[in-house]
Amino acid sequence: MDVTTADGPAPRFNAFAASCPSRRLLDTIGNKWASLAIVALGLKGPMRFSELAARIEGVSQKMLTQTLRGLERDGLLTRTVTPSVPVRVDYELTPLGLSLLEPIRHLKEWAEAHMGEVDRARAEYDGAGA
Amino acid sequence: MDVTTADGPAPRFNAFAASCPSRRLLDTIGNKWASLAIVALGLKGPMRFSELAARIEGVSQKMLTQTLRGLERDGLLTRTVTPSVPVRVDYELTPLGLSLLEPIRHLKEWAEAHMGEVDRARAEYDGAGA
DNA sequence: CCGTATCCGCAGAGATACTG
DNA sequence: CAGTATCTCTGCGGATACGG
């Protein structure tokens, strides 16, 4: 989709432009359902479609399918279809997907440690404004 | 949207629901321009509005203003207005904002290390599909 | 120089119903 | 059970013009 940047031989990574890998990563894990799916699979191991749907609770079939497809495409998880009478599909993190749990954990830790401050700052800001 | 989690004593953080702090954090740093602004300020120290606009390059005034306001509201940066003849406004990360650079750095490192694999997986997936 | 206000277009999220 | 297809509608994001 991104044809904006010509086609340089990926000279450096520190670009602030859209071609930066970090930006693309944020598009993935910054996505509401994608991060939840990754964390869910990371905590519980392989899961079926309906398990994930129940676990995340709030996601629609469409969004879940779309999200999982994207993650599969990115090589973060595998999709295994067992053609039994009721079809069974299992999703499992690849090593690559598992490795992504680490930075996500750091994010989570920061959130748990500091979101209280953010809430306070927000309340104060809103209060002062009003 | 049930209000069951109205004001509990923050029992656990592992919720997959929207009330989880991690989710809210993702809303912030998952935002295209917010992360770039934070990283820019982290690398270069205090910056003026126009500096940021030039640095990020691609952001509109509206989006930049909106983003910076949001980050200010969250206590991640400070906004200092110097009422000179042409108004001068400086933005600077707070300690809280600086601390956020750490998990972001982890993300960046993962991206630089693994986005190549993601690209390959994506190419293979697309190729096999077609 | 910095910011606000307004309008508009479009991608994406959700609900629903159907197929294998 | 898992997934696709279709429709609608919100609201983000961009361009523009104006104010302090």
TrEMBL record, chains A, B:
Q: GO: which molecular function terms?
A: DNA binding
The residues that cross the membrane are: none
Record's Gene3D superfamilies?
Winged helix-like DNA-binding domain superfamily/Winged helix DNA-binding domain
Could you confirm whether the keyword Transmembrane helix appears in this record? no
What organism is the protein native to? Murinocardiopsis flavida
* Protein name as annotated: HxlR family transcriptional regulator
What Pfam families has UniProt attached to this entry? HxlR (PF01638)
Cited InterPro entries: ArsR-like_HTH, HTH_HxlR, WH-like_DNA-bd_sf, WH_DNA-bd_sf
Domain of life, source organism: Bacteria
